Amino acid sequence: MRRISMGKSMDAIMALCKRRGFVYQASEIYGGINGFWDYGPLGTLLKRNLREAWWQDMIMNPCWGRQGPDGEPVRCVPVETRIIQHPRVWEASGHVGGFNDPMVDCKACKSRFRADHLIALPLHALTSVETAGEQSREVFVFYGLGTPAEVRQQRAKEIARLEAQRTLQSLVPPLVYLHNYETLKADFECPACRQRGSLTAPRQFNLMFKTYVGATASEDDIAYLRPETAQGIFVQFKNVVDTTRIKVPFGIGNVGTSFRNEVTPRNFTFRSREFEQAELEFFCHPDDSQGWYRFWRDFRMEWWRSIGLAGDNLQLREHDQDELSHYSTGTCDVEYRFPFTAPDFGELEGVAHRGCFDLTQHQEHSRVKLDYFDQERGELLPNGSRKGERYIPHVIEPAAGLDRGALALICEAYTVDESRPSPEIMKFHPRMAPIKAAVFPLVNKDGMPEVAQKLTDELRARFGRHGLIESDPKQSIGKRYARMDEAGCPYCFTIDGDTLTDQTVTVRDRDSGAQERIAIDKVSGYLSERLGL
RNA sequence: GCGGGUGUAGCUCAGUGGUAGAGCGCUACCUUGCCAAGGUAGAUGUCGAGGGUUCGAGUCCCUUCACCCGCUCCA
Question: A508: which nucleotide lies closest, measuring CA to C1'?
């Protein structure tokens, strides 16, 4: 029903993606592999255009040259960091702990819970050794993984945290030692169906991909494929500051592939296990951070609009206070209403105020100072210069998902117009369109093919770096227009009999089907203007 | 992980134990003077994979993989 009300069927979009070479199932001839998708020729070009636009508008000419809240032009530099980092990077970032959410299933009612989301269970489930000395206070049972010592530590930390938050009464997660769970499980009841003894032992979901560095592949060689590109930026922050003349406030951008072992890959490419991110970490003085947060939040929204997600299907959603990470003072998501999420929205990009959390974490774990000496702050000295101020910069993180972005572009572009002979049209923004233009001889004779070929060659020489220039002399003109509609080509230039005498061609607009006649030597300028080049 | 559904040509799908099909697309030729996706001809299949039952399996049974939907989850 939702699909019908949206007017867009995900099945139809997926069929078009396959048919026209946007997206293929990965390893399809072997039966596919869960959570992985490949891009075909047009999809590859579409995503490249999206990545290029991000690169241009975030790094090369940040925010289209506009000024930041400090009245200065926004400054950003790129890095390219590796998928595999030192394993301790992921300890510092919190991913080693945070990515391993133990899960518990109820065999009776098939419910699944995050173990740390379960309501507290009575004390008697703990071993006597553990309960000694804790009789006088309210004690809760936790789930936990690892050795008893590790679990004790984990629990102490958790209690301290919850006490600090004054939520101990309501939110304490239960803990049980894995090694003696079987003897204790009769004491536990399922929060959903109240059946006793039906909960499975907590099972660990490894959300990070594990691999081995080195040919011997022993347990000492374990490394992880990055779950986000951001950490590579934080780890190289000091090098960038030390080896360039860039000064806070500034951003460092990083684009690349990340991996997450999603529990349930679903919804076409939306939740893939291998995906590409475009992340910017913008470093600024703590006092200026809220201004920068608002600046990036608004710009990122504007940016997605500018590449074609212009309608009601795009929204900005500020996270509620209880949704925020403990270190964040503000986070919002740029969200798109996909056919499969409608009427709800799915995240395209998160813009997070991360405070000084990441640099502080890496400073502690690496024991390398990661603060910044700002020579433009501090009290004014007699000689006219400033005394300087040392601080750990705060960070605003706009982190975009390129595969989700490409999927949103596809869903937004997909249009069905039953009044047209070929109802399916991909209305890509010209800047995103994989095929920029097509050149057709109206009929394949009378000198028209030659003129068309010459124009094609010219357009390719000028626009080939931005996208495909198609040329097709075969079959009826209607068929050729229809094919271009389905591939999302915005402009078709047609050579007809008049071209040979007055040097004009027709331009057909994809979205309206309307035609106008322009001089053949104006085609290049016409296209350049409309592609925003 | 659980439940439901699907898997046959590039795409959409028909095929209820007995020779592998249609429409669209694709290719070639002809036509065509701006969208009636023209006409004619042609090519295209490990029937998702593996095993079993049977004289015989796309069809029945088992296993498995993938995708879709609903739960669950989404750091």
Answer: B34
Segments in chain A below pLDDT 50 = 1-6, 99-100, 117-148, 151, 165-180
CA-only gyration radius of chain A, Å? 28
How many angstroms separate the CA of A289 from the C1' of B20? 67
Q: Residue A304's closest CA among A280, A333, A265?
A: A333
Pseudo-torsion of CA A505, A510, A515, A521, nearest 10°?
A: -30
Cα atoms found within 13 Å of the Cα of residue A220, Cβ hemisphere only: 3
Q: Are A395 and A360 in contact (CB under 8 A)?
A: no
pTM as predicted: 0.84
Q: Is A234 exposed, middle or buried (0-12, 13-18, 19+ CB in 10 A)?
A: buried
Contact call for residues A34 and A42 (beta carbons, < 8 A)? no
Q: Where are the beta strands (DSSP E) in A272-388?
A: 274-284, 314-318, 330-336, 346-355, 372-374
Instruction: Name the nt closest to A424 by C-alpha to C1'.
Output: B37
Cα distances from A190 to residues A60, A127, A130, A194, A202, in angstroms, run 55, 20, 23, 5, 13
**H/E segment holding residue A211:** strand A210-212
pLDDT at res. A417: 86
Bases of strand B lying below 7 A from some protein CB: 1-3, 7, 10-13, 25-38, 46, 48-49, 65-75
Report the Cα–Cα distance between both ends of chain A, in Å, rounded. Answer: 42
Q: Residue A29 CA to nucleotide B20 C1', Å?
A: 21
